[in-house]
Amino acid sequence: MSKRKPLVAGNWKMNGSQALLGEIAGALVSYQGEAEVVVCPPFPYLAAARAALSAGVHVGAQNLSDQPEGAFTGEVAGAMLAEAGCGYVIIGHSERRALYGEDDALVAAKFARAQEAGLVPVLCVGETLEEREAGNTEAVVCGQLMAVIEAVGIDAFASAVVAYEPVWAIGTGKTASPEQAQEVHATLRQTLAEKSPEIASSTRLLYGGSVKADNAALLFSQSDIDGGLIGGASLTADSFLAICQAAQ
Ligand code: PEP
């Protein structure tokens, strides 16, 4: 494992309940591993999550507005998330890109707003199956990363996390092999290194896409994989705890 502190984030998406929060909080009380753990429930549970989770467990949001405040009905500002107790926010998840039309410019604007509010962005990048089969994986993921680097500057990545989430592996049960994931992670780290070797070596790169308790350890053992962004398996206390324990 690298010298970077591993990070495991659970993305509940539009799932969960107050009861699930109690179960996850209860399970994580016994967690004493190496990883930083982040729980990202839907907006209405954020403040309750902060109250329920142990102090060492972070709370993250799944989205934020690109605007600081104002007449934007239904949107949530970064400062509000910070006030609710969030330390992290997921930006540019493939579901936001595909279902809500978030393009690289909007993703970059949200990244900047997150940092203005003192939140650590977890920037998601990933290719579709079609893009992978056409041999475009590197161009797509590095393009998504470069779009944000060019907008906010490489120094902003001193306080950011990048998550490689192949779209074809999200919620499908198809996990990238450890070798496939490592190859893309190394490429992403190289892209960062071309701008700043220091930032490249300290930035945590998470893998996401059907990570489960039984495949997490092998994925996390790859040299450029610093933890995971977990969807479905973060909705069961036992499996989320086991995945956190696999990160060391
Ligand atoms: C995700 O949505 O970020 C994700 C990785 O989902 P899953 O683990 O269910 O594939």
UniProtKB/TrEMBL annotation:
User: EC number(s) of the enzyme?
Assistant: 5.3.1.1
Q: Which reaction does it catalyse?
A: D-glyceraldehyde 3-phosphate = dihydroxyacetone phosphate
- Kindly list the biological process annotations in GO that this record carries: gluconeogenesis; glyceraldehyde-3-phosphate biosynthetic process; glycerol catabolic process; glycolytic process
Q: Which GO terms describe its cellular component?
A: cytosol
Keyword Isomerase tagged: yes
Active site feature: 93 (electrophile), 165 (proton acceptor)
* InterPro entries referenced in this protein's UniProt entry, alphabetically: Aldolase_TIM, TIM_sf, TrioseP_Isoase_bac/euk, Triosephosphate_isomerase, Triosephosphate_isomerase_AS
Entries under PROSITE patterns matching the protein: TIM_1 (PS00171), TIM_2 (PS51440)
Q: Which Pfam families match?
A: TIM (PF00121)
Pathway(s) the chain acts in: Carbohydrate metabolism; erythritol degradation; Carbohydrate degradation; glycolysis; D-glyceraldehyde 3-phosphate from glycerone phosphate: step 1/1; Carbohydrate biosynthesis; gluconeogenesis
Specify the enzyme's EC class, one word: isomerase
Chain positions recorded as substrate binding sites:
11-13, 171, 210, 231-232
Q: Which family does it belong to?
A: Belongs to the triosephosphate isomerase family.
According to UniProt, the name of this protein is: Triosephosphate isomerase
Recorded source organism is Alcanivorax sediminis
> Gene behind this chain?
tpiA
